[in-house]
Amino acid sequence: MKTPDTTNAKAKDERLAKLYRKLESAIAAKAPTADAIFAEAYDMVETAIRRGVSHKEIISLLNEIYGLKLHSATFRELLKKEREARTDGTRAAKCPMCDQVLAASDDVPATAPVREPSH
């Protein structure tokens, strides 16, 4: 025999499951944010900076490929935020080709030799 408590618990579980499915669907349909895109592309961005590619050219490529509308100030802010996130020990920038950990260009003294990845 069903009690009111078990019926209410089942209805609650069904509503939560339905909400979960709807939210997952909404999240999947939502376009990624500039922050998420930048975090995904960060390793390549940092490698390009270390190899002398200008911020202007990187911004242009990010805008073209990802359909963003980044400006120089936004790019610098995203770069700063991502560098901070990676220096707090949770993740490090790595070369996308050889997986070698890269130092942020701000962390390398001007007189330090640039160590090119071995690929």
Explained architecture:
The chain has about 120 residues and is an all-alpha fold. The chain folds into 2 domains: about 1-30; about 35-105, no CATH class. It has helices at about 5-30, 35-50, 55-65, 70-85. The radius of gyration is 22 Å and the shape is elongated.
* Average predicted confidence as pLDDT: 81
Coarse shape = elongated
Distance between the termini: 70 Å
The succession of helices and strands, N to C, reads HHHH
Largest sheet: none
Total count of helical runs of at least 4 residues: 4
Structural Rg: 22 Å
Q: Number of DSSP strands? A: 0
Q: What portion of residues is helical?
A: 55-70%
Q: What secondary-structure arrangement, pairings included, does this model have?
A:
Elements lengths: L3 H26 L4 H17 L4 H12 L5 H16 L32
Helix pairs in contact: 2-3
Task: List its traits.
mainly alpha, 2 domains
What's this entry about, in short?
The protein is mainly alpha-helical and 119 residues long. The protein contains four helices and no strands.
